[in-house]
Here is the input.
Amino acid sequence: MEQSDMSRSHRILWLLEELQLPYTLKTYKRDPKTYRAEKSLKEVHPLGKSPVITDNGKVIAESIVIMEYLIYKYGGSSPLVPKTTELEDEVKYYLVYAESTLQPNLLVLFVSNKIRQSSVPFFIRPVVTRVTQLDYLESKLKTNGTDYFVGDCLTGADIILIFPLKLAKSRAALTKDQYPLLWKWIEQMEGRDAYVRAGRKVAELMV
Here is the structure.
């Protein structure tokens, strides 16, 4: 498993730990100014994509593709494998939603907040409407009523959502008072043994 020193890749490590799959972890540094991948990562994937895995000589990039590959190839009887077509469709929805809708919307929110706090003249500042993504996800947790986004156990939906929601929490967009269910969900995910093991492995490599 190849990853740059950024937290998006932590989701794949978490999944590997949940599936109890053996793996070798290699980290790569990105240029702090340009965010470009170092040459050695581009030798693994020409676009310098991270995360990226190599399985029996097969190189796989993009978080959604990696997650589905690992779950359906190695999941076996794991609860991570959806038991019904309906659950499978729900998980797929969240996989795409997290990457194509949630993360871009949060990025707009964070950039807009930064602009509002800067000295940019008011008349050229963007008009920002209230972002409702977090409200939407809070309501989804409430409706499901199981402390998970899909079904009654951990799925790929929870794993893919951890990065953007932790990012929202770190930027103070997600607060305990306003989003108590999302806050509780993050704490529960961070407390899972597999999640903790994944974090420790990354920390050991960063020393």
Notes: The radius of gyration is 18 Å.
